[in-house]
Amino acid sequence: MILDLNSLHQGQVLRSDVCVIGGGPAGISLARELASRNIGVCVLESGGLEVEAKTQALKTGEVSGQPKSNRWSGLHLEYEDPNQYLLTSRLRTLGGSTQHWGGYCLPMGDHDFLARSWIPLSGWPFKRDEIAPYYPRAAELCQVCIPELSGKKSELSNRTLEEGRDGTLKTRLIHIGPPTKFGDAYRDDLESRGNVKVLLHANVTELKPDPTGRRLEEIHAQSLDGKRVSVRARCYVLAAGGLENARILLASNSVHRNGIGNDHDLVGRYFMEHPQVEIGQFVIFRNPSQLAVYGIHDEPNLSTGSANPGLSRQIVGILAPDAAIFENERIGGFSAQMMLWNDLPADAGRLGRSLLFSRAESEGLTSNDVSFGAFYVRSEQLPNPENRVTLTDDRDPLGMRRLKLTWQLFPPDVDTIVKSTKVLAREFGRSGWGRVRMMGEEQLRGGVEGQCHQMGTTRMHDDPKLGVVDRNCLVHGMNNLYVAGSSVFPTGSFVNPTLTLVALALRLSEHLAKTLKQAT
Q1: What is each CA distance from 211 to 205, 229, 422, in whole angstroms?
Q2: Which residues does 179 contact at the CB level (< 8 Å), separation at least 6?
Q3: Distance between CA 297 and CA 316 in Å, rounded?
Q4: Which of 69, 147, 202, 222 could bridge 5 with an S-S bond, Cβ 3.0-4.6 Å?
Q5: What separation in angstroms does the CA of 168 have from each of 30, 159, 172, 359, 363?
């Protein structure tokens, strides 16, 4: 059922097997899976069924980093007020930010889970094989058809620029959902389940441990209208997003002076985004029909490998290096998307004419044999403890201390962006596909934007001195508090995080079910 906290009695205590804080994709996926195993779930959602200005304003805080004149910081995102990043990047409503996402889904690769010697603190506590079984179900929840998850790869996927040569760029397919708005798609299911209780306008103000400090005793929640309730459960899962997960842990300091899970000053640290920038223009010696896979389109002949024929089959091709390039260049991950031009801009025309002049003489090419466009690179930001969430002394209408986000790109992040440009230009020239006109460093600096993918603030590591949660997403030092969502990512890859965070939520639901069964 779905209720409004304001309809409950003041001070009412609710009880459940599991309490989930946050009704976004992680929280909803987790709740539905647990409920299907006959486990009682209470979901606390800050917002309502639609986005509300007064609830959204609770996200207001501070953003700081490098000076505004240095656009490498990525702080502006083309906003005059950096605070707009906090207000618009995430939604406080049932369904969370899937209520305005693009539906882009791509699984992480094997190398994303491995330790990389040139990237400090890289490596997940487990290999991709451990999360792989949950990807197909995650894809269905995101309503996308991803054949490679069932061993039926498209012939277009993993095609290299130079066939048979390792250490080159490969074609990968991003699968695009409707996009699935989890609050709309799964609202009826949540409403109809007798063992699920969703409380709207339930803003968590404190996680209250017992006197030992090792076990959560209850959660306090409050509406903006002043109604207060408590929830007592056997297990609790914090699934409020990359920024709010850290904020709630830091604010819950009645027993743990520095906040829950923060004995080693790690909560809020290692914030990561996905920087994106236009890195240059290209001319390709192929006609547009040969490049159709790199534009958004439907793939009607795609073999789904799924019993659900209603899954989205829309795809867009990107170019991504294989693991050898990352290692050779000693950089983070990146991918490049081609934006083909229908009409040739004036400056691209000069580029095209200069490149085509010699090519046309030697091979007799005409304008019908080439394509023009721009490359956009999305890169992996490397984990750095100085990128972090902290709390300010300013308080919101609920009395909660507002957050401060400190975020900037450090030299290794810049190195990834600059070298990705060189890799693209080199590989295109060597393969004979075409030529790339690279932007200068100053031009790159003026165009970096974040993608509102907030990761890493409660990172996963089996050593409590290096992570906030363990491999099962259990907060170190606690025995019944877990964290779900992209905040547990140790590294962020270059792929959109939603599919992976849903897969992690499904994995967590299985672990919780076993844990609760063993405790009975």
Answers
A1: 19, 21, 57
A2: 98, 101, 102, 103
A3: 7
A4: 202
A5: 38, 10, 13, 24, 25
Q: Tell me which residue has tokens 């707009």.
A: 84
Taking the C-alpha atoms of residue 419 and residue 427, their distance in angstroms, rounded to an integer, is 12
Among candidate residues 499, 478, 485, the one with its CA nearest the CA of residue 456: 485
The token pair that represents 428 in the structure block: 């295109």
Q: Give the number of other CB atoms < 10 A from CB of residue 497.
A: 24
Q: Give residue limits of the domains in the chain.
A: 1-65+89-140+180-273+452-520, 144-177+275-379+410-447
Contact present, 96 and 25 (Cβ < 8 Å): yes
Q: Count of alpha carbons within 13 Å of 200, Cβ hemisphere only? A: 20
How far is Cα 45 from Cα 20, in angstroms, rounded to an integer?
9
Residues of the chain with pLDDT under 50: 66-80, 164, 304-305, 357, 360
Q: Are 242 and 227 in contact (CB under 8 A)?
A: no
Residue type, 257: R
Shortest CA distance to 26 belongs to which of 237, 218, 195? 237
Check residue 310 and give its pLDDT.
72
Q: What angle do CA 70, 76, 82 make, to 5 degrees?
A: 125
Structure tokens at 503: 């897969």
The answer to whether the Cα torsion of 296, 299, 305, 307 is positive or negative is positive
Give CA–CA dist 181/167, Å, rounded: 38
Q: What is the reported pLDDT for 72?
A: 37
Q: What's the full length of the chain, in residues?
A: 520
Beta 371-379 vs 388-395: how paired, if at all? unpaired
Model confidence over 342-367: pLDDT tens digits? 766 666 556 555 655 455 455 666 66
Euclidean distance between CA atoms 473 and 461, whole angstroms: 9
DSSP letters of 391-451? Answer: EEEEE-TTSPEEEEEE----HHHHHHHHHHHHHHHHHHHHHTSEEEEEPPHHHHHTT-B--
Tell me the pLDDT of the chain averaged across its residues: 87
Separation CA 313–CA 310 (nearest Å): 9
Q: Which residue has the tokens 């890289």?
A: 122
Please, what is the end-to-end C-alpha distance for the chain in angstroms? 26
Distances (CA, A) of 175 to 49, 61, 214, 496: 27, 34, 42, 11
Closest CA to 94 of 55, 38, 149, 146: 55
Q: Please classify residue 87 by burial: count the beta carbons closer than 10 Å to its beta carbon, then call 0-12 exposed, 13-18 middle and 19+ buried.
A: middle
**What pTM value is reported for the model?**
0.92
Element (H, E) at 510: helix 498-519
Q: Which CATH superfamily is domain 1-65+89-140+180-273+452-520 in?
A: FAD/NAD(P)-binding domain (3.50.50.60)
